[in-house]
Specification:
By secondary structure, the chain is mainly alpha-helical. It has one domain: Porin chaperone SurA, peptide-binding domain (Triger factor/SurA peptide-binding fold), CATH 1.10.4030. The protein is built from ten helices and three strands; from the N terminus they run αββααααααααβα. A hairpin with a 2-residue loop joins strand 1 and strand 2.
Length: 257
């Protein structure tokens, strides 16, 4: 891995850019009003963190919270806290920057892989099962309640698959998930998430996804130090104090992603 000096984007500069955007929009709105009505300034969005030269917006955090329902590793964990959502966005930004720096093309998932993962989610994730997401009507209703769009879900899954493949290529060698571990997760973690009246997918159907979850957990333990080193080498600044603790401290202590 090549070491390169961090590119620092000052928080004042980032905040200034957002402020300019807000003022420009306010002026545009004012032009449509009568001269007697002064233009009102409003904030379109705000920067909550900067990862090297990349800004993370408050809207990104809100969207990450909504998308968390599609995360197979988040089953049974409830609503994703904004602090943890920001930590995930920071980690993802660092990894994607590393992928671009290394020009790793093999990690790009195909359209077929993305569609296959989407079909699994629509049929198996408990929140989707309750909406009958296997049908187009149910899927659209589910997306509407979460404030999501098909295009945004597709982008989320593509990035997720890309990062998982990148991590696995680096860290998964030597990791073996046993059938006993898969069955244990199925009975102790997945099954309790379904209502008694809901159709429960058989173990043979969901075993590949469970294996991915367990594999990712072990891989996370291995690549934690690597990710923490990326944070130390780069310039990660959280601009919103309400999103810093305790999630960021907990993540730093565990070295997770």
């Amino acid at each position: 891995m090549r070491n390169r000096p961090p590119i620092r984007l000052k928080s004042k500069l980032v905040k200034g850019c957002v402020a300019v955007m807000a003022v420009c929009m306010a002026v545009s709105a004012g032009l449509a009003q009568s001269p007697a009505q002064p233009a009102k300034a409003f904030v379109l969005d705000r920067v909550v963190a900067v990862v090297n030269n990349q800004a993370i917006l408050a809207s990104d955090v809100d969207e990450e919270v909504r998308l968390a329902v599609l995360d197979p590793g988040g089953v049974g964990l409830g609503v994703l806290p904004p602090q943890l959502a920001l930590e995930q966005l920071i980690s993802r930004a660092l990894i994607q920057q590393q992928i671009r720096e290394e020009d790793t093309q093999t990690t790009q998932p195909s359209a077929a892989e993305i569609d296959a993962r989407l079909n699994e989610i629509r049929k198996e994730v408990p929140a989707c099962v309750r909406f009958n997401c296997a049908s187009e009507v149910g899927w659209k209703a589910f997306l509407a309640t979460r404030g999501l769009t098909p295009g945004r879900v597709h982008t989320y899954l593509r990035r997720r698959l890309q990062i998982l493949r990148f991590i696995e290529e680096r860290f998964r060698q030597g990791i073996h998930i046993t059938p006993e571990e898969i069955e244990s997760y199925y009975r102790e973690t997945l099954l309790p998430q379904y209502e008694p009246s809901e159709a429960i997918p058989p173990l043979a159907v969901v075993a590949p996804r469970i294996q991915e979850i367990l594999l990712q957990r072990q891989v996370n333990a291995l690549f934690g130090d690597w990710l923490e080193n990326l944070r130390k080498q780069g310039d990660v600044e959280v601009l919103d104090p309400s999103l810093e603790a305790p999630a960021s401290q907990d993540k730093a202590g565990k070295g997770g992603a």
